[in-house]
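#random but structural
TW: two for the price of one
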Amino acid sequence: MAEAEAAPAPMNPQVQGLYGELRKAILRENFDKVLSVCKKLKAHADAGPDDDVVRSECIALLQLNRLDAALELSGKHAFLAFERAYALYRMGRHEDAQAACEAAEDRDSPRFRHLLAQLQYRQGDYAGAKAFYGAVANGEDEELGDDEDNIHDAQVNYLAAMGHAEDYTDIEAYVESHAADVEEDYEIAYNAGVGLSAGLESGGVERMARAAEFLRSSRDLCATTLEDEGLGNEEIAEECGIMDIALSFILSAQGKEAEAIELCMAALQRKSGRPVDVCVAANNLTVFRGQRDLFDSFRRLNKAVASAEEKLSTSEILTLRCNRCLLLLHMNKPKEFEAAVAELRKDYPADAHVFLLEVAIKLLNNPKPAEVAATLEAQAADFAGREKARVSLAAAQLWFQAGEDAKAVEVLAGMLEADADLVKTPGFVATLVSVFNTKRRPELAKSVLDGAFDPASSAPYMIRYAVEYKIKFGDAEGAVKVIEAAEQSDMSSDDRLELGALKAVALSWIAGRSEEDVEEELDGAVADLGVSEHDLYGAEADDEVDILDLERKVPHRVRRRPAPT
């Protein structure tokens, strides 16, 4: 007959009451109360040691952002290895946090793998982060793939990692296969928009409209979701602010800087703005302003970075610090500029941005652009992709500055041959076309424009840009063909109106066309749209409208051919 086990001693009623208080405080997320109760339990003679109480205390310290105290407590207990790694992560000590993860006995557990992926993202190892989040998002991780919350968070982070890893075609494929998620969840739609907008610089002009669509959709979804949850207008505005800031980047790329600046200023003036949002808005505002309001931009950027640096990724911090260096240069503070660049070189020893800032120092100390251009051209081979393009473009600009136009054009033409996708970049297209046009190389400018866009899918502003220059180059028939192809795609009435204005101009320049011929063709084009001329103009029914007045809608540099006298 087996021996009966001794019955456990009854718990002290006072201790039992404290455990009840602790459970309630945890459920109500009252972390100050959690700390108070944990202190009482640890001090009570009858309570005895309890790992759960110690863990509750440590988690409360983390939730209250008392990171130093959490790190100290977790360092005393081996069972708090994860909390210690997380405290180091929150403190921005990413290398120490990664070492703590890798040294943990259960480092292969889901929570450590998840934290390690976050660390990889913060430190710029986007391929590693993408691999982890992709496995979870696609249901390939057996331990994390069955939980809807895990899958949702992984989808959001997967899109962010793909954007930073410059895997833009992967983003497009993912949102195509998960269209319902993008349409229903504002966080997923937001990260899809941000990821695609990052691709504009590397040849994704045609992605601009789609990225803007995702960002606007995410804002609408966010506002509706939070309104249904009972949040107030200020809370909704704060949550939607990051969508507006991301949209400002696209608006700027579309040449709508006034709207972009307005969105950033609204974010900066919002009293409840989150530090990261304010940081991004301050940086974007600095870029949009250029050399205007330098001291105000410098003050805002410094303040924003100080409040949010620990929450930014490595690449984001690099961008902010580079812009800070440029502000110092424009503010005529050469010593401070050199010191700031030297600090960047320590932290980012092989980055092209830092290399170009060092080139600026060379020009300050030895203003001989031809010598620096030759150095840049030679060292461009040390870089790849966009970084190589930046270095080569800087070399070309310096060759122009030195009066060596032929060498500059040779560098630029070489860039076109080496990287065809590069010519789709809006800023790069504008730079090349302007340079080639100024240097009387219209055939190269035309080549850039023809390769930069697709009338059926590119953003309307890019189509307008190409049409304007075709007219300037004397290719009016080519301009009309581009417009007619673009008219078959979906676009707003405002975009159609502007293309109609350019069509009026292009038709007028085709030899043998009279004003009557032009007017007849335009009337037919408007009829095909299913609207009236009054609809296009936004005019009242009894207002007199002349469709040839569409000319007023186009830039002064492109004008209708004068009627013969």
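TW: number two ↓
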Amino acid sequence: RSFAMHSPYSSMNEYDNPNQWGSMDSDYMYQSRGYMPQQTEKYPPTHMLLTRSEYENQKDNDPSTAWYGLDMSDGGFRTIPGAIGNFTHLTSLYLLKNKLTNLPATIFTGLVNLTLLDVSYNQLTKLPTEIENAQQLQKLLLSNNNLTSLPVEMGRLWRLKTLSLDGNRVNDPPPQIVQGGAQRIVSYLRDKVPPVPPLPARKWKAAQLEQTTGPLKFKVITYNVLAESYATEEQHPYTPAQVLQWDSRKFKILEQILESGADLICLQEVEQRQFQHFFVPQLQKRGFEGIHKLKTRAKTMNDPSSVDGCSIFFRTSKFRLEQKIELEYQSLAIHNNIPTGPGLDRTIRRDNIALVAVLQIVAEKGRSKSPARRIILCNTHIHWDPSEADVKLMQVQFMLRELDNITQQKNENNMPLLIAGDFNSEPSNAVYSLLNSGKVDPTHRDWNGTNYGTFSRDGCSHRFKLKNCFDGICQPEFTNFNGDFMGVLDYIWYTSDSIRVVGVSETPSKEEILTQKSPLPNTNYPSDHIYLLAEFEVLSNKRRGN
């Protein structure tokens, strides 16, 4: 490939001085031949100079005229201007067969979409540590340079599939690691990456209340703790092996729970062995009792110790367990008369569950001996697959029907209800609409054209006046950061006619979490989810109309 330029300036090869490059790039953007996915060239081999405004205005052009590759190979360049980082749309950059001894950091901090970088046949002696920012890189070609070591920050390049180092004398990583290929090298370096500083402590955001709060206040936390069986390098290729181990994560999880001051704890992805041997003994000695429900598959296994499920812990000084109720969505699909066919097949394949606790509020000393107030707490983990939004919707509908039956059996009007968990659904999904508005029409796209009998004909609905605990206070920007996905999947819902929110713990912003330099978990976040925490007050009968 050749890189030519016709402009009022002299030949590009003359601009070896980085100061001269900088002066040019402050006024102009460079546009070389463009590489489309089908290798269609939209520009001639000659170079064109555009003013910055002309370059930026191109963003409104038809996408068919866009270019994603920049070829600056075989040009005799001794340096590359830092302003190359302005080409943030680039996915491919060819710098091979030049005379480069170093690379500007902006290649890695600015070209955030770069998937291929070819710097073969140069004179590079080292790579900048900023390479850790190029986490979209899949192919990095470094053959025939003067490299003797690779920066540990390359351990963050978790998407890297091809790494060419032929013609270098790399001794760090050791030769046996280098011979193992790209993924082996990245894995080796990843375990040596220094931890990033933790984010500042969360702030508490109080709700704007018209009346002072009463005595029946409590905090609720929901937290998907990432089951040990799911914490694998295949699932989390960006996390150091030591950090993924349950023994490294469990006390950090416990520390977050205890520091939250929660009175009611809802945990998802808790394996049977972790519930029995870690959470129960650790939380019991801190004044909690707990209940647990495994996913339905545990019934068919000789050793269900590695099966995960949902746990509820309650502070015994504030609550007493009246009843434990287990919900299995597989069996509920049959009980709700889903007709034989794809709808029934799709729902009974998924063994998700919910765990319900009917709790009595322990009266404080000196208070009247009137009948104990009760609340219902439901903890659930809904099916994960984005392509099965209809299954998620039906699971939540089944749950709401059962909760309705429970409240009616308790014969208590407006019985306070809390629903927490990992719903694996974003606010744009039908699950959120059902919980938030009380209904989902049969025309919603999340039905996926699947027949669920009367539900498909009439839609889904419930009678509860549910509200998201963050509404009107602050909204999380994400609750799960796993690989390529970052979004809100976890919620705490409450019946607004019997409970009100006193305040919530603010969650990190997307901008803040990106300073952690990788998806989760990491040294500061022991799960791929973050916890949600809110404080509630049970309204007295006199104030429920407010």
